[in-house]
Amino acid sequence: MPDRSETPGPLGVALVGHSFMGAVHSHAWRTVDHVGTPAVRTRRAVLVGRDAQRTAEAAQQLGWEGSSTDWREVLERDDVHVVDVCTPGDSHAEIAVAALRAGKHVLCEKPLATTVEEAEEMAAAAAEAARRGVRSMVAFNYRRVPALALARELVAAGRLGDVRHVRAVYLQDWIVDPEFPLTWRLRKETAGAGALGDIGSHIVDAAQFVTGQVIQGVTGVLETFVKQRPLEAGPAGRGTGLGASASTEYGEVTVDDAAAFIARGDGGALMTFEATRFATGRKNAMRLEVNGSKGSLAFDFESMNELSFHDATLPDAEGGFRRILATEPTHPHVGNWWPPGHGLGYDHAFVHELQDFLTAVAEGRDPAPSFADGLQVQRVLAAVERSAANGSTHTPV
Ligand code: SOE
């Protein structure tokens, strides 16, 4: 462990975006200085948004020193060292690349970009910045859920043997109502993809993170169940995200509502994926099951403190899935929190993400997942889209 008796800092942080993700990240930035011994201290210097009044109000509510409507101006500030990008996908590349060029460390929400080309530009800028000691990371937060991090450790320690199957699903239902408005997440030009990009990207990252296998070929199908939706009511026309309200005019949904695809991992695993916003009753069911020659693991984010483990090396009479409560101080990320059994929530994974990001910055190394990792996920998503567009369907005869 590095000696952190004199924690350096503070690093000034600029957060761009103050909708759902901006609020979750704000919570994490408020908390990270107070958990364990931080690698470096931070200051919540400035919150950036499009509307001056709404951004100023959000800054006050979320605990930022000031607010701005001009991220370019913020990049010129010497007291800003970190830029956290929580905007809709279509502005990730422009902001992140400019921030890296300005010498700011960058944390960027997922999926990294709206296209492979943008993600390539971002990964190239990140690689160039790293040579100047400037760090970057893509925010696949579920990696930092203790039970999923434990799953990775068990696979890496060989407890599952050879991994043969990965079954990954991410099920939500927040747009089941056909009158839910056409927010930025439902338009290709702002989001890049629908369920595939927004939540499919999480399970692609999680499957690769847990198994250590890199996805090779994919075959996929996409579906848009509701093709027209009311436009959003409201000033900015890009909505407040998940809680937006509808106007009386309608527009076309240009992304998928659901995606299903199969893939091969480079270690021989057969992987199946399903991402949907139409699984009524499932709110944030991000689930992963891994079957190996020596055992299996199962995780469901809706019970995020638990990991089920079947050890196939035990005698048959003692087999079966047992529940590991991933709340011991010896479990990944848990040590600085509450006594065993007291459980963590969605927000804690974002604090862990910042802890790892800041530790890498302080220690002068690149954090993971990198922009190159984000690009690789983007390529998988694009391959699913190509397959869905060109794929052959065989009618049972
Ligand atoms: C909406 O589908 C959303 O907020 C995603 O954008 C997040 O990445 C996921 O964690 C929760 O759901």
UniProtKB/TrEMBL annotation:
Q: Which InterPro entries match?
A: Gfo/Idh/MocA-like_OxRdtase_N, Gfo/Idh/MocA_oxidrdct_glycsds, GFO_IDH_MocA-like_dom, NAD(P)-bd_dom_sf
Which residue range or ranges hold the GFO/IDH/MocA-like oxidoreductase domain? 150-297
Record Gene3D superfamilies: Dihydrodipicolinate Reductase, domain 2, NAD(P)-binding Rossmann-like Domain
- Gfo/Idh/MocA-like oxidoreductase N-terminal domain location is 12-131
Tell me which Pfam families the record gives: GFO_IDH_MocA, GFO_IDH_MocA_C3
Signal peptide range equals none
Identify a single GO molecular function assigned to this protein. Answer: nucleotide binding
Keyword list, A-Z = Oxidoreductase
Task: List the PANTHER family hit by this protein, alphabetically.
Answer: BCDNA.GH03377
Q: What name does this protein carry? A: Putative dehydrogenase
What is the organism field in this record? Kineococcus xinjiangensis
